[in-house]
Design a protein that fits this description.
three-stranded antiparallel sheet, 9% helix, 34% strand, globular
Length: 119
């Protein structure tokens, strides 16, 4: 019972958004509305750009990530948070490539972000 209560308290606590960052502490969540660009590769992982800079997701590697793929979230709070499972799909056909679990978000320098590839 105590574990259930603790999980409910964690789920209802206000997650930290990219605008609340302090230093290089990993963040639990990034708000979807703050994400301006996204880069995903199976080899290098998942990166997003916000007005505060680039962020790397520290979750496990995911072979479903790839260029020209979209993410579908099932989040109730319009954020991408540690522990969320994202479904990776082709944005046009909606073919699913699998699901990937997110980790915490770590702010990184632009030099660490994989380059964008030409379409």
């Amino acid at each position: 019972m105590r574990i259930l209560i603790a999980l409910l308290l964690i789920a209802t606590a206000a997650p930290v958004s990219a605008s609340d960052t302090a230093g290089s502490e990993p963040q639990i969540c990034l708000a979807n509305r703050d994400i301006k660009a996204r880069r995903m590769t199976a080899e290098q992982g998942y990166y997003v750009r916000t007005s505060k800079g680039w962020w790397h997701n520290l979750g496990p590697s995911c072979s479903a990530y790839g260029r020209n793929r979209a993410l579908i979230t099932q989040s109730l709070n319009n954020q991408q948070c540690r522990g969320d499972v994202m479904t990776v799909v082709d944005p046009f056909s909606r073919i699913e490539f699998g699901g990937c679990a997110l980790g915490a978000w770590q702010q990184v320098a632009k030099a660490e972000v994989p380059p964008a590839k030409a379409r």
